[in-house]
Amino acid sequence: MLGCFLGGGCCPLVCLLALLLPLVSLSHLNQHGPRSDGARDRPKLLLVSFDGFRWDYIDRVPTPNFHRIIYEGVTVERVESAYITKTFPNHYSLVTGLYAETHGIVANEMYDPALNRSFSMETDSIYESRWWEEAVPLWVTIQKAGGRSGAAMWPGSDVKIHGMFPNKYLPYNASVSFEARVERIIEWFSAPKDAAVDFGVLYWEEPDESGHNLGPQNSLMDVVIAGIDEKLGFLMNELKKAGLYEKVNLIVTSDHGMAQLSPDKIIELDEYVSRDLYTWVDKSPVVGILPKEGKFDEVYSKLADANPNMMVYKKEDIPEHFHYQHNIRIMPILIESKEGWTVVQNRTAPFMLGNHGYDNTLRSMQPVFVARGPAIRQNYVKTSMRSVDLYPLMCHILAIPPLPNNGSLSNVQDLLSLEPTPSTAPSIPPRANGYSYAPVVGSFIGVVMVLGFLMVYIRQVTLKQLPSLKHRSREMSQPLLQEDLHL
Ligand SMILES: [Zn+2]
């Protein structure tokens, strides 16, 4: 048939090729094309958070391991965390792509008037699912998509959320060393194919704790930062030893930065309003104030212009760019201290030298961000992103559809490798009943190319070796030969 299309008499060889090539092409597709067992050969991603690791720590002391990742991958100079810049809200923003007002973990300490319950890091209330279920973390989403996840101490990862825990997780225990957490993560990624995790999250409490106690400007922080770099080096080395370093996309970031405090910068609320008139929710530097019934106007008017080093917002007046208004767990009045200021009821409260929670546009509140791996671009410095943009980026790398979120993949697409690799290519869902033209078009192009090659080749052979052709199979060669000679 194709021989006829090319002109002249019909050639059996051409017809045979025309019949066989589409079959070969389809057979190839079946072997190597989209697979229905989505769990196999999934891209791998490990997200690491060093709590309170401010963006500029990596240039303060030698941090060769952070810089190795930047050289092999990317860094982002300005990452805007979600408001308020506290630990629980931001760790949940990183894995949901949502601002706190949407995912519902609006502070480390919360009160929900509808539930009439309080949430506190100091109590088991953090294990109550209902606090977390205004959003779906990425580990749940990937598991619902047929993938597997593992979590080492990430806030919220040991809570049953929408009926699920991560496939593998460690119940929170601050006394478990970083190295032990890494060993478990490596074990989970290294498991046999059917059991290996695709998405891992790893949390470490430092340098936040030291930042609070010492203050970020303290020279003793240098040792702490160098120690974190060594821990990162340990992780990289363990990934290499397990043969995972080139397979796993590694993202290292933090929930927020850290600001230097001063004992001279204290705001004492008792000077302005009686504590009998309100309930104090969450801690400095951003405090939720719940006035007692009928006392809203009195409390607000006493606080509003009381101290120039704090902003006092009615809930409905909280600036739009904070995305921190539309949730019942955000209190009717919000006090936000200016950078470096501490708000207390009186000076008997314990005092810290470093803190976070302030305005997320402040440079001191911004975290580190470095990443490397098969899906990540090499040796690239990006100027800015929002931490909520990380979620759609991770979904893209993991080849799973993101849930609705406040981030934008287009804001961070330049962090991706320029050359698509097998691990970054989005998985194509298997077509149950659909029909694709791709195999037909591919086969047709293949047939035309092979025929073209054959015609040129045979022309050369027959011109050079005309006498010997007499001894070959005339059925195969002669029609082409005759046609060819008449061209
Ligand atoms: Zn902290």
UniProtKB/TrEMBL annotation:
It comes from the Eukaryota. Residues 1-26 form the signal peptide. Coiled coil: none annotated. SUPFAM superfamilies: Alkaline phosphatase-like (SSF53649). The chain crosses the membrane at residues 437-458. InterPro entries: Alkaline_phosphatase_core_sf, Phosphodiest/P_Trfase. This is Ectonucleotide pyrophosphatase/phosphodiesterase 5. It comes from Sander lucioperca.
